[in-house]
Amino acid sequence: xxxxIKRGILTGFSTSAYTASVLILEATSTQLTxxxxxxxxxxxxxxxxxxxxxxxxxxxxPTDAVVMAMYANGTSGxxxxxxxRVTFVTPTQQVTNSTINAGVTQTFTLTGTGGIxxxxxxxxxxxxxxxxxxxxxxxxxxxxxxxxxTCSIGDLQTANGTLNGVGVLPLSSDGKIDIKANxxxxxxxxxxxxxxx
Length: 197
Prior knowledge:
There is one protein chain. This protein has no helices and 13 strands. It is mostly beta strands. It has two domains: about 5-70, CATH 2.40.50.230; about 85-195, Sandwich (Jelly Rolls), CATH 2.60.120. The strands form three sheets. Strands 3-2-1-4-5 form a five-stranded antiparallel beta sheet, with no helix packed on it. Strands 6-13-8-11 form a four-stranded antiparallel beta sheet, with no helix packed on it. The chain has a four-stranded antiparallel beta sheet with strand order 7-12-9-10, with no helix packed on it. The mean pLDDT is about 90.
């Protein structure tokens, strides 16, 4: 019983059965159907026309195989837009009652805690803040990103009131964000409950 890895072209993908149809390149007349597909591959990468690697656990038994990798076939099989997988995690408070003075930007690292993995492109977040004077708002962005063009929460119109916001926030390559307080000193709390990778 010899194992083998063969190249193929994906001709179909069933999300309900999590199986693929594959045309094996070494045997162009051989079309396999119902081949299990590795669970890290999803509909964003299992594009018809993409090249794939098929592992045969027993080279003599074409039903004992798994599609284990997908890759582009020239311009065919390239996901557009690129995949962005969202993973939900247990909500975790990442910033707790942090006072940020008006006009000041503070940096926080979000990866490595609360299930947010290194290499994440962004996070799903909830944040709220309070300020003793008004109007006040927060700007949030990836570390060293453009705070004026990413996320904002505010304007708070009542002194000592609280304002909530939720959204998707990009992360810098080292898993950091910047939060800037505008208009007044702000006491900030931020939770993460998912990430995009």
